[in-house]
Amino acid sequence: MAFTMRSVKVPPNSASLAEARSRVIDFFKKSCRSIPAIMEIYNLHDVVTVSQLRSTISSEIRKNAHLSNPKVIDMLLFKGMEELGNIVEHAKQRHHIIGQYVVGREGLMQDASPKDQEASEFLKQFYTSNYF
Amino acid sequence: MAASLRPAILRHIRLPVRPQGQPVLPSWLSSIRAMSGHGDDHLTREEVVDRVLDVVKSFPKVNPSKVTAEVHFQKDLGLDSLDVVEIVMALEEEFKLEIPDKEADKIDSCPLAIEYIANHPMAG
């Protein structure tokens, strides 16, 4: 575990929204630059392209575009860096990457058939909110 | 004595082997060599323009018919700042560059992107 602990650095909190914003951009660039290595590690060349993965990362970031509290943004950034570190360290397997970033959450949900249209609202929200 | 000398001598004799069909190059030719790996294959400006426009057009949120060489990413194409970073990363991938942050922040339109890449010696 030592090598994992070394790579996880906790940066000081962002003082302002502008600083948090530039950190997000830096993180986005860093993750974009590691896409080729990730495609190599997980052998993704036949299922996805670099630009598709890039769009996936940017849409994950855009999901949180409404946030304005620098502390919350810092926390999400930390989670993102942790995730990126894990992926680059090959701590995951191919199907994790494909499930989360190639097929997407909707693609994995099994309730798309007409039979499940009647499923309760609670269950639908449970499916959409509990895939992390 | 001779029997033991024979293999010792043979082991040290090397005959130059020449392929049959190939003419031997004159010695002055072999002294000429390319001085660098990426040599003279600089990109022409037209090629840079074409490839930059291709990258921008292939961006999913962009309407390809609106893209020209003078277009501004945010004002004319309606993209946000994250989209611009994404386009710059796509350009980095296309031209095998790594654009430093200070330069990347300035690139917000097609003319600036073309200008930067056309002037970059390592763009390939």
Number of strands of chain B: 0
- Number of H- or I-type helical stretches of chain B: 7
Helix and strand element order of chain B:
HHHHHHH
Q: Biggest β-sheet of chain A: count, sense, barrel?
A: none
What structural category arises from helix and sheet content of chain A?
A: mainly alpha
Number of helices of chain A: 7
Q: What is the radius of gyration of chain B?
A: 28 Å
The most extensive interface between chains reads:
A-B, 15 and 14 residues
Organism (chain B): Dioscorea alata
Protein name (chain B): NADH dehydrogenase (Ubiquinone) 1 alpha/beta subcomplex 1 protein
Organism (chain A): Dioscorea alata
Protein name (chain A): NADH dehydrogenase (Ubiquinone) 1 alpha subcomplex subunit 6 protein
Give a quick set of tags describing it:
heterodimer, A: about 130 residues, mainly alpha, 7 helices, B: mainly alpha, Non-ribosomal Peptide Synthetase Peptidyl Carrier Protein, Chain A, NADH dehydrogenase (Ubiquinone) 1 alpha/beta subcomplex 1 protein (chain B), NADH dehydrogenase (Ubiquinone) 1 alpha subcomplex subunit 6 protein (chain A)
